[in-house]
Amino acid sequence: MRYICDFHIHSKYSRACSKDLTPRKIAEWCEKKGIDVVATSDFTHPAWSSELQKNLEPAEKGLYKLKDCCVASAARNDIHRARFLVSTEVSCIYKRGGKTRRAHHVILMPSLEAAEKFSRVLEDRGFNVRSDGRPILGIDSEEILKIVLDTSPDAMLIPAYAWTPWFSIFGSESGFDSV
Q: Which domain holds residue 90?
């Protein structure tokens, strides 16, 4: 079966993003654009995490849908087709091998509960996940991968960008020359 997916969006809690980005609005636009599965984005932000818990319910394994209470009318049941995959983006900025490294990563979690657990680990380590939907973490990419997989073996970490000019894995300011 073919799915159209967008795994890298943001919430209203990320800098320079629309304040209209709510679960319901995201689902409505998925329907208009033909997107079957969309990222929840920014699950590390406590206010957004609360909105996700309030507005989403489990659908298929690892996916969520809008709760019935969030659909405006019976005529809008089509927005129930959109599925949400629990995700966030983090920016890792750290020193390694005498260079400053900068890498953005998309993190996919199998559930909202796993996302909560991951966010608690970050907060327990002193990272500020409240200032922005895309938290900046002073942590090595390998270490964030370890935290992701310790949270859940079903979780994934994916480099957020490959070819953007600055902070992608091949960007001029990333500190990396290869994967």
A: 1-179
